[in-house]
Amino acid sequence: MEGERAGAGEPERIARAALTRVIEPGDERGGRWLSQFGARELMARFTLPEYSNHENAGLAGITPRRLAGYRIRAAAVEPHRDLAAVAAVGGRFICPGDQEWPTQLDDLGDARPIGLWLRGRADLRKWALRSVAVVGARACTPYGAHMAAGLASGLAERGWVVVSGAAFGVDGSAHRGALAAGGATVAVLACGVDVVYPRGHAELIGRIAEQGLVIGELAPGDHPTPSRFILRNRVIAALTRGTVVVEAEYRSGSLVTARSAQQLGRFTMGVPGPVTSGLSAGVHELLRGEGVLVTDAAEVAELVGNIGDLAPDRRGPVLPRDLLDPVSARVLEALPARGAAGGDQVARGAGTTTDEALGRLYELHSLGFVERRGDGWQLTHSPSRGSNARRGGP
After folding, report:
1. For the whole model, what pTM was predicted?
2. Residue range 84-127, pLDDT digits in tens
3. What residue ranges define each of the domains in the chain, with the CATH number in brackets?
4. Strand 213-216 vs strand 185-189: parallel, antiparallel, or unpaired?
């Protein structure tokens, strides 16, 4: 594609910076024009007089009304001013063809970002290679906030970059969890990277810009809209190895991110919650489909990581009786819960000989599992070896 061949060139970069004010994020028709003509030629068709008499400026599928809207926007852009504005806050603009461009964003096809505005010192391409998205409800419960922070801190400690949207609720908890662990985090905004949104996260976004990266498709000063939030989610999904959803209702932008991840062939995970909570309903629906249930960072890393990134085995406590050999365990099971039994009775219950049963009973006696009662044997009823605990009772 012509745009990619010239991606790192200065004229093409300036034209792409200009187009971020003309074409909305995720506009696939605009993406096709960009692939066909390149950024400089596309801007020319929006701005130069020689195209003004063309009904559609040679752009397939465009209506006169839509073309007029593009031209109004294009006439007002000042890309050099925008580039200076992002530089003033310590930022930069990257586009396809640049060394820092994360090529996994190319999986979006015609919906690929025209370019990305960044704040922060880290290399986005390197960070994105080992990144996980943690997203969820804005109005999350304390459980959701706790799980998001724990997942993020655990992932950060394992060297994973945590990506989210800097919103209230789960997003903010995920960013804070990563920062608290001294790890890396990326905030993908639905506005200009110099715009603080939500306002209540001014300090958090500032910390992310210092310790991590703040990125977005929109030019400096641009403000978010509902559609931009939804379209922002495709970038989160494409940028990362997998997406974890922590609390989401049936209608949730977080589920949009998860579905985008599925369509792109990324891992999709969900953290279960109470079945009585509406905030967990969307996650549970995800888990009924192709989503994978996860409960901590180790399970996430096992799924999205390399061979050898295994989560620890999950099992209950090992009880003394678990260490018995099979015959001794059968002999122990053959004893009644109350009262005593003779060797012959125990042997019949255990399916072995009387001599074998007696030998095992003496071994169990030395281990403290059983005790003699006259000519019979009974279970030990001491506080530390009560029969119910050993027999799996309540």
Report:
1. 0.81
2. 999 999 999 999 999 999 999 999 999 999 999 999 999 999 99
3. 2-81 (no CATH), 115-304 (3.40.50.450), 320-390 (1.10.10.10)
4. parallel
